[in-house]
Structure formats: C-alpha cells, structure tokens
Amino acid sequence: MSKYALVTGGSGGLGAAICKTLASSGYKIVFTYNSNRAKAERTLQELDGEGHQFYSLDVADTQAIESLRNSLVDDNIDIDLLVNCAGTTQFVAHQDLSGLTDDIIDKILSVNVRAPLAMVRAFQSSLDKKRGCIINITSIAAKTAMGSNIAYCASKAALENMTCSLARALAPNVRVLSVAPGLIDTEFVKGLDEEWRNTQEQSTPLQRLADVEEVAKAVLLAAEQLTFSTGTTISVDGGRPLNG
User: Could you count the other beta carbons within 10 Å of the beta carbon of residue 174?
Assistant: First the structure.
C-alpha cells in the first residue's frame, strides 16, 4: 500500500529537498506551493517514482486548506505524513520595534502558527486512520530568539510549543515532532551579505551552514526511525546555540 506525504511549501529550497528525500524513500508526494507554478512543476519533475502531485495553496486561507482536504478525500488519498514546511518572514532589526508593523506580525503569525494548526485540524482524521506522523519545521530561533525579526522568533517558539500540545492531544495514534534547522545554505541565503554569512559560519561549532538535504534527512529520520518519539524537537543546527 502506498504511503502519502503532504508537504506545504514544497517548491521552496527546503521544501523541495524534503519532497525529493521522501519520494526517494518510497512516499508518494502531495505538495503545495504559494505562487510560483513553474518552480512547482520543476520540483515535480525531479521526484523519484510516480503518482506525485501538487496544488496551489495559500496556507493562511483555512477554507482553501479544507478544499485541498476535500480534493484528496475525493481521490481516496489518506495522508501518512504531514510536513508543515511553509513559512514566511521579513528582515526587521530586533531593536526596530516601529518597523515591525502589525501587518508584518499578523502575516507571520497567520502563516507560521495558525496555518500549521489549520492543516492538522483538516487532516486529523486521515492521519489518525493511518497512525501517521506530523513534522513541523521550526527554527533555531525558537530557542535563541535570534532571527529575522522578533515576531518570527516568537512564531517558531509557538510552533514548537504547539508540537508538544498536539503530541499530547493526538496520541496514541499520531506522533508529532519538530525539526529545527539552524541557518540553511539555500539560494536565498547565498544571496545575502557575504560577510554576514561568514560570521554565521564562524559562530557555528561545525564551521558551516546546514545543507537542505541534511534537514530533509532529519525529517525522514523522524518519520521513519524515531517511532517512539513524540512531542520533541530534533535540532539540525551544527551546535550553533553552544556559542551563544
């Protein structure tokens, strides 16, 4: 019987790596993208195996999430694994409280906190039936409070807390874990200030940034191997918090 993984934000740098890793391990992938259909089509073409599909989805739109759920139900697809990877942020210096406007805060919280919960709510029945797993992609910022802005750090801390609450609420049939990367060497990060990137590398005990594939492997590990783990966070940060 086929195993299905639903990955939000599946056409982004990290999301695409997660989709590819899961597909290579035998999952049929359903992934969502926000606006770049061409990028989603490229991701689909790069997945091993057959039977994969993608959908356009604004994860902040609960009604759209429910429509996606209904489409999968119509196709007789039950989800074994839900990966909440979609997220958003904007660089605002932590001391610039005026620059962190209500609109920025509301968008970050709706995408990074409310949307994952809405996804779980929509697919709870499917996951429960399959004794499935939920993996929330959080961030080192949840614990260090260092990141693109204050609201982003708070949103990832909230998501890790939600992981614990959901693990308790959905047990024993559904496991819930977080995977918390440090700074990932995506194309976006490679385009940032080189001196800043070098500082981040030198501040990490392993002296480099994470590869997207390393984070994707942690997702696969959580889903397939850590079968007696729930309500906890797997860090993929190169030991960055050790250096303050």
Answer: 23
Structure token digits, residue 83: 């990966």
Q: Does the pLDDT of residue 47 top 90, yes or no?
A: yes
Q: Is the pTM of this model over 0.90?
A: yes
Q: Is the pLDDT of residue 189 over 80?
A: no
Nearest to 183 by CA among 170, 171, 169, 196: 196
Say whether 210 sits in a helix, a strand or coil. strand
Catalytic residue check, 152: yes
Indicate whether 188 pLDDT > 80. Answer: no
pLDDT tens digits, residue range 115-132?
999 999 999 999 999 999
DSSP 8: T
Q: Supply 153's token pair.
A: 């750090």
- Catalytic one among 4, 27, 33, 152? 152
- Cα separations in angstroms, 127 against 5, 6, 92, 150, 170: 10, 11, 37, 33, 9
